[in-house]
Amino acid sequence: xADNRRMVRARVPRAPERIGALPDDVLRRIMSQLxxxxxxxxxxxxRRWRDLWRSVPIINATFEDxxxxxxxxxxxxxxxxxxxxxxxxxxxxxxVGLDEFRLDYSxxxxxxxxxAGSADANLWISHVLRWNARxxxxxxxxxxxxxxxxxxxxxxxxxxxxxxxxLVPGFFDQLQTGCPALEYLFLSDCLVMDLxxxxxxxxxxxxxxxxxxxxxxxxxxxxxxxxxxxxxIECDLSVARRPTLKNMSSLEAASxxxxxHVTACDADGIMQFLGGLSHVTSLDFRYKDGKxxxxxxxxxxxxxxxxxxxxxxxxxxHANFYALVVFLQNSPSLKKLTxxxxxxxxxxxxxxxxxxxxxxxxxxxxxxxxSETNELLPRVTQFLRDSGIGTDQxxxxxxx
Length: 400
Known about the structure:
The protein is 26% helix and 25% strand. The chain has 400 residues and is of the alpha/beta class. The strands form 3 sheets. The protein has a 15-stranded parallel beta sheet that branches. The protein has a 3-stranded parallel beta sheet with strand order 7-10-12. Helix 5 links the parallel strand 1 and strand 2 (100-105). The protein is elongated and about 75 Å long. It starts with a helix and ends with a strand.
């Protein structure tokens, strides 16, 4: 019996042997989940692994790998080590195609000349685009990088993610002409120095927190993306002006957060902003951090003729459900309404209506997402019943 057990164990290869039996392409895919520095270290495992890192399809160059490699507070030394490593890595890499380049950088605090300080990052981006990288993700932790528009020249680039950067004048013109295949654009914590975020090719546009247009311009910035089918915009009006939406004719789904000082947002402004989204079929609209009172019967909400799915949060149920009624009155094709209720501080758009009636003949379900102890839930369900929405049409989802 013991001999049989020994024979069984002998037939089961050890873990390193099982990994080593995989094809090189599979190993490179696995190594792509590592940071670039970790990928290089695999060359010590065995002779076969010596050069695999040179052809990984995804490059993860992260500053984190060097946080323990220098004096604890010497960010300039860590930055120098990181720059040297990334430059050397790219020079030694085989000249093969690249799926994605991920740069997690930290431009040292105290860098006075952002253009010079960003030169290496621009050089790296230009280098990987020459390898036909299909996706580029640049995340910076400290001072904003100043990205050179000229480096964005590639007929292969499809996805671009930028966090913490200054986008100098001409940046979006260069994207338009230099990257004709670009379909996905994500911006976060970026200073836009053009008057307009513009792309005729982007299908998914995400403007996350703290994307602001330069105050050097008197006019508010605008967004033009005629091919976009999905847009997500977070606009903090305390640090940025509300952008104008232009030429969004292909848009199907939109997610919007308006927050900050309400003095920067009025009925005309909301009407104009929502008007650019009026033909979507799915809308998630969040309003936070302020109270805004509308004059009697003023029209601030356009008609959403195509809207099928509508998601609103707590702000719409205050002020006697004023905002919720307005949205429902202007959504004749609505099939699903989602209400996300939380205990956050009150942000509300209030006003008066001569007529509070609405008909949503196609409405099939109302989903309410809240905690089990949410104090608003009984009021909301009672309002829905009083409005002719049956209990069988309501679905309550509890969250922690």
